[in-house]
Specification:
By secondary structure, the chain is of the alpha+beta class. The protein folds into two domains: about 10-70 and about 280-430, no CATH class; about 85-265, no CATH class. It contains 17 helices and ten strands. A six-stranded mixed beta barrel has the order 2-3-8-5-7-6. α2 (about 35-75) packs antiparallel against α11 and α11 crosses α13. The longest helix has about 40 residues, at about 35-75. The chain is elongated, with a radius of gyration of 33 Å. The two termini are about 10 Å apart. About 35% of the residues are buried.
Length: about 425
Protein backbone atom coordinates (compact mmCIF):
# COMPACT_ATOMS: atom_id res chain seq x y z
CA UNK A 1 0.00 0.00 0.00
CA UNK A 2 1.31 3.44 -0.93
CA UNK A 3 -0.41 5.41 1.78
CA UNK A 4 -0.73 5.79 5.50
CA UNK A 5 -4.15 5.80 7.16
CA UNK A 6 -5.40 6.73 10.57
CA UNK A 7 -5.44 4.07 13.24
CA UNK A 8 -9.20 4.25 13.70
CA UNK A 9 -12.17 6.26 12.54
CA UNK A 10 -12.34 8.06 15.87
CA UNK A 11 -8.85 9.50 15.26
CA UNK A 12 -9.91 11.31 12.11
CA UNK A 13 -10.20 15.09 12.27
CA UNK A 14 -10.53 17.55 9.36
CA UNK A 15 -7.22 18.24 7.60
CA UNK A 16 -5.29 15.98 9.96
CA UNK A 17 -1.50 15.64 9.51
CA UNK A 18 -1.86 12.26 7.80
CA UNK A 19 -4.13 13.86 5.16
CA UNK A 20 -1.49 16.50 4.40
CA UNK A 21 1.24 13.87 4.26
CA UNK A 22 -0.78 11.69 1.90
CA UNK A 23 -1.59 14.65 -0.37
CA UNK A 24 2.12 15.52 -0.64
CA UNK A 25 2.98 11.86 -1.31
CA UNK A 26 0.48 11.66 -4.16
CA UNK A 27 2.03 14.73 -5.77
CA UNK A 28 5.50 13.13 -5.61
CA UNK A 29 4.54 10.57 -8.20
CA UNK A 30 6.66 7.54 -9.09
CA UNK A 31 8.10 7.10 -12.55
CA UNK A 32 5.18 4.93 -13.72
CA UNK A 33 2.85 7.71 -12.60
CA UNK A 34 4.86 10.40 -14.35
CA UNK A 35 1.82 11.62 -16.29
CA UNK A 36 0.26 12.92 -13.11
CA UNK A 37 3.46 14.68 -12.06
CA UNK A 38 3.77 16.27 -15.52
CA UNK A 39 0.19 17.54 -15.50
CA UNK A 40 0.66 18.88 -11.96
CA UNK A 41 3.82 20.69 -13.10
CA UNK A 42 2.01 22.15 -16.10
CA UNK A 43 -0.85 23.27 -13.83
CA UNK A 44 1.65 24.85 -11.43
CA UNK A 45 3.37 26.74 -14.26
CA UNK A 46 0.05 27.77 -15.81
CA UNK A 47 -1.35 29.17 -12.57
CA UNK A 48 1.94 30.92 -11.75
CA UNK A 49 2.22 32.59 -15.16
CA UNK A 50 -1.45 33.60 -15.17
CA UNK A 51 -1.18 35.20 -11.72
CA UNK A 52 2.09 36.95 -12.63
CA UNK A 53 0.56 38.25 -15.85
CA UNK A 54 -2.50 39.57 -14.05
CA UNK A 55 -0.35 41.31 -11.41
CA UNK A 56 2.00 42.83 -13.99
CA UNK A 57 -0.71 44.05 -16.35
CA UNK A 58 -2.87 45.54 -13.61
CA UNK A 59 0.14 47.16 -11.92
CA UNK A 60 1.25 48.70 -15.22
CA UNK A 61 -2.27 50.01 -15.87
CA UNK A 62 -2.42 51.40 -12.32
CA UNK A 63 1.00 52.96 -12.80
CA UNK A 64 0.04 54.38 -16.17
CA UNK A 65 -3.10 55.95 -14.75
CA UNK A 66 -1.30 57.20 -11.62
CA UNK A 67 1.66 58.70 -13.50
CA UNK A 68 -0.63 60.25 -16.08
CA UNK A 69 -2.85 61.72 -13.39
CA UNK A 70 0.10 63.08 -11.40
CA UNK A 71 1.49 64.83 -14.46
CA UNK A 72 -1.87 66.18 -15.60
CA UNK A 73 -2.61 67.58 -12.14
CA UNK A 74 0.93 68.87 -11.75
CA UNK A 75 0.82 70.66 -15.09
CA UNK A 76 -2.76 71.92 -15.31
CA UNK A 77 -5.11 73.76 -12.95
CA UNK A 78 -7.42 71.69 -10.78
CA UNK A 79 -10.26 74.17 -11.17
CA UNK A 80 -10.99 76.73 -13.90
CA UNK A 81 -12.99 79.86 -13.11
CA UNK A 82 -14.40 81.50 -16.24
CA UNK A 83 -17.10 84.02 -17.06
CA UNK A 84 -17.93 87.62 -17.77
CA UNK A 85 -16.97 88.68 -14.23
CA UNK A 86 -13.30 88.27 -15.19
CA UNK A 87 -13.64 91.28 -17.49
CA UNK A 88 -14.86 93.58 -14.73
CA UNK A 89 -12.94 95.79 -12.28
CA UNK A 90 -13.52 93.43 -9.33
CA UNK A 91 -11.63 90.45 -10.73
CA UNK A 92 -8.62 90.98 -8.46
CA UNK A 93 -10.96 90.71 -5.48
CA UNK A 94 -12.35 87.47 -6.96
CA UNK A 95 -8.81 86.01 -6.99
CA UNK A 96 -8.29 87.15 -3.40
CA UNK A 97 -11.56 85.55 -2.23
CA UNK A 98 -10.77 82.28 -3.99
CA UNK A 99 -7.27 82.22 -2.47
CA UNK A 100 -8.79 82.58 1.02
CA UNK A 101 -11.10 79.60 0.42
CA UNK A 102 -10.24 76.56 2.60
CA UNK A 103 -8.31 73.80 0.80
CA UNK A 104 -7.23 76.20 -1.97
CA UNK A 105 -3.44 76.38 -2.35
CA UNK A 106 -3.29 79.25 -4.82
CA UNK A 107 -5.21 81.06 -7.55
CA UNK A 108 -3.94 83.22 -10.39
CA UNK A 109 -5.14 84.55 -13.76
CA UNK A 110 -4.06 82.97 -17.03
CA UNK A 111 -4.26 83.55 -20.76
CA UNK A 112 -4.25 80.58 -23.11
CA UNK A 113 -4.54 80.32 -26.87
CA UNK A 114 -3.19 78.45 -29.86
CA UNK A 115 -0.26 79.52 -31.99
CA UNK A 116 2.14 78.29 -34.63
CA UNK A 117 5.82 77.86 -33.76
CA UNK A 118 8.58 78.33 -36.35
CA UNK A 119 12.14 77.15 -35.91
CA UNK A 120 14.89 75.78 -38.17
CA UNK A 121 12.51 75.52 -41.09
CA UNK A 122 9.99 73.45 -39.09
CA UNK A 123 6.41 74.52 -38.44
CA UNK A 124 4.50 73.14 -35.47
CA UNK A 125 1.22 74.00 -33.75
CA UNK A 126 1.46 74.85 -30.07
CA UNK A 127 -0.58 75.92 -27.06
CA UNK A 128 0.67 79.12 -25.47
CA UNK A 129 -0.14 79.59 -21.79
CA UNK A 130 0.50 83.02 -20.34
CA UNK A 131 1.13 83.07 -16.58
CA UNK A 132 2.43 85.53 -14.01
CA UNK A 133 6.02 84.79 -13.02
CA UNK A 134 5.09 83.61 -9.52
CA UNK A 135 2.49 81.21 -10.89
CA UNK A 136 5.05 79.56 -13.18
CA UNK A 137 7.57 79.26 -10.34
CA UNK A 138 4.93 77.42 -8.30
CA UNK A 139 4.35 74.90 -11.09
CA UNK A 140 6.83 72.38 -9.72
CA UNK A 141 6.46 69.85 -12.52
CA UNK A 142 7.92 72.46 -14.88
CA UNK A 143 10.48 74.34 -12.79
CA UNK A 144 11.93 71.18 -11.22
CA UNK A 145 12.41 69.53 -14.60
CA UNK A 146 14.24 72.23 -16.56
CA UNK A 147 16.90 70.54 -18.70
CA UNK A 148 18.39 73.68 -20.26
CA UNK A 149 18.39 77.31 -19.20
CA UNK A 150 16.38 78.56 -16.23
CA UNK A 151 13.41 80.67 -15.22
CA UNK A 152 15.64 83.64 -14.48
CA UNK A 153 14.30 86.68 -16.31
CA UNK A 154 10.92 85.09 -17.07
CA UNK A 155 8.17 87.62 -16.50
CA UNK A 156 10.62 90.37 -15.56
CA UNK A 157 11.34 93.65 -17.28
CA UNK A 158 9.08 95.71 -19.51
CA UNK A 159 5.92 93.79 -20.44
CA UNK A 160 7.29 90.74 -18.67
CA UNK A 161 10.32 90.28 -20.91
CA UNK A 162 10.73 88.28 -24.11
CA UNK A 163 11.67 84.93 -22.57
CA UNK A 164 9.50 81.84 -23.07
CA UNK A 165 9.73 78.27 -21.79
CA UNK A 166 9.26 75.35 -24.19
CA UNK A 167 9.07 71.56 -23.84
CA UNK A 168 11.98 69.26 -24.61
CA UNK A 169 10.30 67.44 -27.50
CA UNK A 170 9.37 70.74 -29.14
CA UNK A 171 12.95 71.95 -28.72
CA UNK A 172 14.27 68.73 -30.24
CA UNK A 173 11.90 68.88 -33.19
CA UNK A 174 12.65 72.54 -33.90
CA UNK A 175 16.39 72.20 -33.25
CA UNK A 176 16.36 74.81 -30.49
CA UNK A 177 18.31 75.26 -27.28
CA UNK A 178 18.10 77.70 -24.40
CA UNK A 179 19.11 81.17 -25.66
CA UNK A 180 17.96 80.57 -29.25
CA UNK A 181 15.31 82.65 -31.01
CA UNK A 182 11.86 81.17 -31.53
CA UNK A 183 9.15 82.67 -33.73
CA UNK A 184 5.48 82.43 -32.82
CA UNK A 185 2.55 83.23 -35.08
CA UNK A 186 -0.87 83.95 -33.56
CA UNK A 187 -3.60 83.05 -36.09
CA UNK A 188 -6.12 85.22 -34.22
CA UNK A 189 -3.64 88.12 -34.32
CA UNK A 190 -4.65 91.70 -33.79
CA UNK A 191 -7.14 94.04 -35.39
CA UNK A 192 -5.92 96.30 -38.22
CA UNK A 193 -7.54 98.60 -40.77
CA UNK A 194 -7.71 95.58 -43.08
CA UNK A 195 -9.29 93.27 -40.49
CA UNK A 196 -7.75 90.72 -38.18
CA UNK A 197 -4.25 89.74 -39.29
CA UNK A 198 -1.94 87.00 -37.96
CA UNK A 199 0.65 88.40 -35.59
CA UNK A 200 4.22 87.17 -35.81
CA UNK A 201 6.84 87.81 -33.16
CA UNK A 202 10.23 86.43 -32.16
CA UNK A 203 11.04 85.48 -28.57
CA UNK A 204 14.03 83.99 -26.75
CA UNK A 205 13.98 80.46 -25.36
CA UNK A 206 14.71 81.03 -21.68
CA UNK A 207 14.47 77.37 -20.67
CA UNK A 208 13.59 73.88 -21.87
CA UNK A 209 11.52 71.69 -19.55
CA UNK A 210 10.78 67.97 -19.66
CA UNK A 211 7.73 66.78 -17.74
CA UNK A 212 8.02 63.18 -18.92
CA UNK A 213 4.67 63.47 -20.69
CA UNK A 214 5.17 63.72 -24.43
CA UNK A 215 1.91 65.56 -25.11
CA UNK A 216 3.00 68.48 -22.92
CA UNK A 217 6.68 68.44 -23.86
CA UNK A 218 5.92 68.83 -27.55
CA UNK A 219 2.94 71.19 -27.51
CA UNK A 220 3.18 73.78 -24.70
CA UNK A 221 4.89 77.16 -24.55
CA UNK A 222 4.88 79.19 -21.32
CA UNK A 223 4.92 82.94 -21.82
CA UNK A 224 4.77 85.87 -19.36
CA UNK A 225 1.15 86.86 -18.99
CA UNK A 226 1.62 90.46 -20.13
CA UNK A 227 3.40 89.27 -23.29
CA UNK A 228 0.65 86.72 -23.98
CA UNK A 229 -2.01 89.42 -23.68
CA UNK A 230 -0.13 91.61 -26.16
CA UNK A 231 0.64 88.74 -28.51
CA UNK A 232 -2.95 87.51 -28.77
CA UNK A 233 -4.50 90.98 -28.74
CA UNK A 234 -6.05 90.43 -25.33
CA UNK A 235 -4.77 93.47 -23.44
CA UNK A 236 -6.38 93.51 -20.01
CA UNK A 237 -8.21 90.21 -20.66
CA UNK A 238 -8.08 87.03 -18.56
CA UNK A 239 -9.17 83.77 -20.14
CA UNK A 240 -9.63 82.07 -16.79
CA UNK A 241 -8.46 81.94 -13.20
CA UNK A 242 -6.51 78.77 -12.48
CA UNK A 243 -7.04 77.27 -9.03
CA UNK A 244 -4.83 74.67 -7.34
CA UNK A 245 -6.30 72.74 -4.39
CA UNK A 246 -4.77 70.43 -1.78
CA UNK A 247 -6.61 67.29 -2.85
CA UNK A 248 -7.66 67.30 -6.50
CA UNK A 249 -9.38 63.91 -6.05
CA UNK A 250 -11.79 65.39 -3.51
CA UNK A 251 -13.53 68.32 -5.14
CA UNK A 252 -16.96 67.66 -3.63
CA UNK A 253 -16.56 70.37 -0.98
CA UNK A 254 -13.98 72.63 -2.58
CA UNK A 255 -15.67 73.24 -5.91
CA UNK A 256 -18.92 74.69 -4.45
CA UNK A 257 -16.88 76.84 -2.05
CA UNK A 258 -14.79 78.21 -4.94
CA UNK A 259 -17.94 78.88 -6.95
CA UNK A 260 -19.40 80.79 -4.00
CA UNK A 261 -16.20 82.81 -3.59
CA UNK A 262 -16.08 83.60 -7.32
CA UNK A 263 -19.60 84.98 -7.14
CA UNK A 264 -22.14 85.67 -9.90
CA UNK A 265 -21.05 85.96 -13.51
CA UNK A 266 -18.59 83.08 -13.22
CA UNK A 267 -18.59 79.36 -13.97
CA UNK A 268 -16.32 76.80 -12.31
CA UNK A 269 -15.07 73.72 -14.13
CA UNK A 270 -12.76 71.04 -12.77
CA UNK A 271 -10.01 68.97 -14.33
CA UNK A 272 -12.27 65.93 -14.61
CA UNK A 273 -14.59 67.75 -16.99
CA UNK A 274 -11.65 68.66 -19.21
CA UNK A 275 -10.49 65.06 -19.70
CA UNK A 276 -13.50 63.04 -18.51
CA UNK A 277 -13.84 61.01 -21.71
CA UNK A 278 -10.19 60.02 -21.61
CA UNK A 279 -10.29 58.75 -18.04
CA UNK A 280 -13.62 57.03 -18.59
CA UNK A 281 -12.00 55.12 -21.46
CA UNK A 282 -9.07 54.18 -19.20
CA UNK A 283 -11.45 52.97 -16.51
CA UNK A 284 -13.43 50.80 -18.93
CA UNK A 285 -10.24 49.38 -20.43
CA UNK A 286 -8.91 48.57 -16.96
CA UNK A 287 -12.13 46.80 -15.95
CA UNK A 288 -12.31 44.74 -19.14
CA UNK A 289 -8.63 43.81 -18.95
CA UNK A 290 -9.02 42.67 -15.35
CA UNK A 291 -12.02 40.50 -16.29
CA UNK A 292 -10.17 38.89 -19.21
CA UNK A 293 -7.10 38.11 -17.13
CA UNK A 294 -9.23 36.73 -14.29
CA UNK A 295 -10.76 34.31 -16.79
CA UNK A 296 -7.24 33.31 -17.89
CA UNK A 297 -6.36 32.55 -14.26
CA UNK A 298 -9.55 30.49 -13.99
CA UNK A 299 -8.70 28.53 -17.15
CA UNK A 300 -5.18 27.87 -15.84
CA UNK A 301 -6.62 26.61 -12.57
CA UNK A 302 -8.95 24.27 -14.44
CA UNK A 303 -5.88 22.32 -15.62
CA UNK A 304 -5.70 20.97 -12.09
CA UNK A 305 -8.85 18.94 -12.80
CA UNK A 306 -7.18 16.75 -15.42
CA UNK A 307 -4.27 15.95 -13.13
CA UNK A 308 -6.53 15.04 -10.22
CA UNK A 309 -8.81 12.91 -12.38
CA UNK A 310 -5.80 10.86 -13.49
CA UNK A 311 -4.59 10.67 -9.90
CA UNK A 312 -7.97 9.33 -8.77
CA UNK A 313 -7.89 6.65 -11.49
CA UNK A 314 -4.34 5.59 -10.61
CA UNK A 315 -4.94 5.61 -6.85
CA UNK A 316 -8.26 3.77 -6.94
CA UNK A 317 -6.81 0.76 -5.09
CA UNK A 318 -5.24 2.99 -2.42
CA UNK A 319 -8.56 4.76 -1.90
CA UNK A 320 -10.35 1.46 -1.45
CA UNK A 321 -7.78 0.25 1.10
CA UNK A 322 -8.04 3.52 3.04
CA UNK A 323 -11.83 3.20 3.13
CA UNK A 324 -11.63 -0.37 4.45
CA UNK A 325 -9.21 0.81 7.15
CA UNK A 326 -11.74 3.33 8.40
CA UNK A 327 -11.06 6.51 6.43
CA UNK A 328 -14.28 8.38 5.83
CA UNK A 329 -15.48 9.81 2.56
CA UNK A 330 -14.75 13.25 3.93
CA UNK A 331 -11.14 12.30 4.65
CA UNK A 332 -10.66 11.00 1.08
CA UNK A 333 -12.23 14.18 -0.30
CA UNK A 334 -9.88 16.30 1.80
CA UNK A 335 -6.79 14.38 0.66
CA UNK A 336 -7.46 15.03 -3.01
CA UNK A 337 -8.68 18.54 -2.28
CA UNK A 338 -5.35 19.25 -0.59
CA UNK A 339 -3.44 17.79 -3.56
CA UNK A 340 -5.09 20.29 -5.91
CA UNK A 341 -4.94 23.14 -3.42
CA UNK A 342 -1.19 22.61 -2.94
CA UNK A 343 -0.60 22.87 -6.69
CA UNK A 344 -2.84 25.94 -6.99
CA UNK A 345 -1.48 27.59 -3.85
CA UNK A 346 2.18 27.07 -4.75
CA UNK A 347 1.52 28.29 -8.30
CA UNK A 348 -0.22 31.36 -6.91
CA UNK A 349 2.69 32.16 -4.58
CA UNK A 350 5.19 31.69 -7.41
CA UNK A 351 3.15 33.99 -9.64
CA UNK A 352 2.93 36.54 -6.83
CA UNK A 353 6.71 36.53 -6.41
CA UNK A 354 7.38 36.79 -10.16
CA UNK A 355 4.80 39.55 -10.66
CA UNK A 356 5.95 41.70 -7.74
CA UNK A 357 9.65 41.35 -8.66
CA UNK A 358 8.91 42.18 -12.31
CA UNK A 359 7.00 45.31 -11.29
CA UNK A 360 9.73 46.35 -8.83
CA UNK A 361 12.42 46.13 -11.54
CA UNK A 362 10.29 47.01 -14.55
CA UNK A 363 12.43 49.94 -15.73
CA UNK A 364 15.76 48.02 -15.71
CA UNK A 365 13.95 45.20 -17.53
CA UNK A 366 12.60 47.69 -20.06
CA UNK A 367 16.07 49.15 -20.65
CA UNK A 368 17.57 45.67 -20.95
CA UNK A 369 15.02 44.56 -23.55
CA UNK A 370 15.41 47.82 -25.49
CA UNK A 371 19.19 47.34 -25.49
CA UNK A 372 18.82 43.76 -26.74
CA UNK A 373 16.25 44.51 -29.44
CA UNK A 374 17.30 48.04 -30.39
CA UNK A 375 13.64 49.04 -30.35
CA UNK A 376 11.64 51.45 -28.20
CA UNK A 377 9.23 49.17 -26.33
CA UNK A 378 7.34 52.14 -24.90
CA UNK A 379 7.22 54.97 -27.43
CA UNK A 380 6.41 58.21 -25.54
CA UNK A 381 4.86 59.69 -28.67
CA UNK A 382 2.19 56.97 -28.51
CA UNK A 383 1.78 56.36 -24.78
CA UNK A 384 2.24 59.97 -23.52
CA UNK A 385 4.79 58.92 -20.87
CA UNK A 386 8.52 58.54 -21.46
CA UNK A 387 8.94 55.28 -19.49
CA UNK A 388 6.87 52.24 -18.56
CA UNK A 389 5.34 52.76 -15.10
CA UNK A 390 4.14 50.16 -12.59
CA UNK A 391 2.32 50.86 -9.36
CA UNK A 392 1.60 47.94 -7.03
CA UNK A 393 -1.66 48.31 -5.14
CA UNK A 394 -1.65 45.71 -2.39
CA UNK A 395 -5.45 45.44 -1.96
CA UNK A 396 -5.67 44.51 -5.63
CA UNK A 397 -2.76 42.06 -5.28
CA UNK A 398 -4.58 40.44 -2.36
CA UNK A 399 -7.72 40.12 -4.49
CA UNK A 400 -5.71 38.48 -7.30
CA UNK A 401 -4.13 35.98 -4.89
CA UNK A 402 -7.48 35.11 -3.33
CA UNK A 403 -9.12 34.76 -6.75
CA UNK A 404 -6.38 32.43 -7.98
CA UNK A 405 -6.44 30.26 -4.87
CA UNK A 406 -10.25 30.14 -4.87
CA UNK A 407 -10.21 29.11 -8.54
CA UNK A 408 -7.72 26.32 -7.77
CA UNK A 409 -9.83 25.11 -4.85
CA UNK A 410 -12.95 25.19 -7.03
CA UNK A 411 -11.18 23.06 -9.65
CA UNK A 412 -10.41 20.35 -7.08
CA UNK A 413 -13.99 19.81 -5.93
CA UNK A 414 -15.17 17.57 -8.80
CA UNK A 415 -12.30 15.05 -8.81
CA UNK A 416 -12.13 15.08 -4.99
CA UNK A 417 -15.83 14.25 -4.73
CA UNK A 418 -15.40 11.53 -7.31
CA UNK A 419 -12.61 10.00 -5.24
CA UNK A 420 -14.68 10.17 -2.05
CA UNK A 421 -17.59 8.33 -3.71
CA UNK A 422 -15.46 5.47 -5.01
CA UNK A 423 -16.91 2.09 -3.92
CA UNK A 424 -14.17 0.04 -2.15
CA UNK A 425 -15.77 -3.26 -3.24
CA UNK A 426 -15.76 -2.33 -6.90
CA UNK A 427 -12.22 -0.95 -6.68
CA UNK A 428 -10.83 -4.15 -5.13
CA UNK A 429 -12.93 -6.67 -7.06
CA UNK A 430 -10.24 -7.40 -9.67
CA UNK A 431 -7.19 -6.94 -7.43
Amino acid sequence: MNADAPASPTAVRPFAPWEWELAYRYLRAKRKEGGVALISLISFIGVGLAVATLIIVMSVMNGFRGELLDRILGFNPHLYVEGAALEGPGRDEIVARITRTPEVVRASPAVEDQAIVLGSGVVQPAIVRGLPRQSLLQTELVVKNIKQGSTEGFGQGEYGGDLVMIGSRMAEKLGLRAGDDITLVAPSGGATAFGTQPLRKTYIVGGVFETGMAEYDQAFVFMPMEQAQLFFGKEGVWDYIQVIVRDPDDLGRVKPAVAAAAGPGTAVKDWRQQIQAFFDALKIERTVMRLILMLIVLVAAMNIISGLVMLVLIKGRDIAVLRTMGASRGAILRVFFLSGAIVGGSGTLAGLLIGVLFCAFIRPIQHLLEGMTGQHLFDPAVYFLSSLPARIEWPEILFIVLWSFASACLATIFPARRASRLDPVEALRYE
